[in-house]
Amino acid sequence: MSWLMVAVGVAAVGTSISAYSAVAAGQNAKETADYNAKVQQNSALDAEQRGAQAAMEHQDKVRRLIGTQIADTASNGMMTNTGASLNILTDTAGFGKLDALKLLNNAGRQAQGYNDQAGLLKVQGDNASTAGSLNGSAAVLGGVSSGISGFYSTKAAIAMGNQG
Q1: How confident is the model at residue 4 (pLDDT cuts 50, 70, 90)?
Q2: Torsions phi, psi of 117, nearest 5?
Q3: Burial class (CB in 10 A: 0-12, 13-18, 19+), 153
Q4: 148 vs 137: CA distance, rounded Å
Q5: N or C: which end of the chain has fewer CB within 10 A?
Q6: Could you give phi then psi for residue 60, rounded to 5 degrees?
Q7: Under 8 Å between Cβ of 92 and 65
Q8: Which residue blocks in the chain are alpha helix, DSSP H?
């Protein structure tokens, strides 16, 4: 009967290791996914900041262009606040603003993509953690079931041996 107890003990240790490994694997996968989600969130923030910087630089460029247009128009003896000159300046300012808004919009879309990916990674991490816990529980139940089955099979074999 002592060999039977040793076998049960070994099976219990094996079951414990399997359960721990399953839970640890799930937790490691969650930690990795959470880290990758944070990287994506940082990328989103970076995209927004780069977009804002690009829009600001573009608006500065447009202001310099408008200044050059005013200087050129005035140096040719034309009025800058009426007629075609005013139309050109107004168009330059309007299209410059539109381009800056497009830069911001594109950066926002890129950031949204990063944030969406971060959300997906967090869900995947949560799922991996849950799967690890379930797999650990399944390992324990499977080990207990195998242990009980093995115990009764061995007990029956011993009983058969004692009868014969």
Answers
A1: low
A2: -65, -40
A3: exposed
A4: 17
A5: C
A6: -60, -40
A7: yes
A8: 2-75, 83-163
Mean pLDDT rounded to a whole number for the chain: 89
DSSP secondary-structure letter at 80? Answer: S
How many Cα atoms occupy the beta-carbon half-sphere of 56 within 13 Å?
6
Rg over alpha carbons for the chain, rounded to the nearest Å, is 36
Q: Which two tokens stand for residue 63?
A: 């202001």
Angle, alpha carbons 16-18-21 (nearest 5°) = 105
- pLDDT tens sequence across 36-54: 999 999 999 999 999 999 9
Both tokens assigned to 12:
């219990």
Given a cut of 60, whether residue 24 has pLDDT beyond it is: yes
Q: Which amino acid is at 144?
A: V
Chain centre to alpha carbon of residue 72:
52
**For residues 152 and 118, which has the higher predicted lDDT (pLDDT)?**
118
- Position 1 scores a pLDDT of 54
Residue type for position 23: V
Percent of the chain with pLDDT over 70: 95
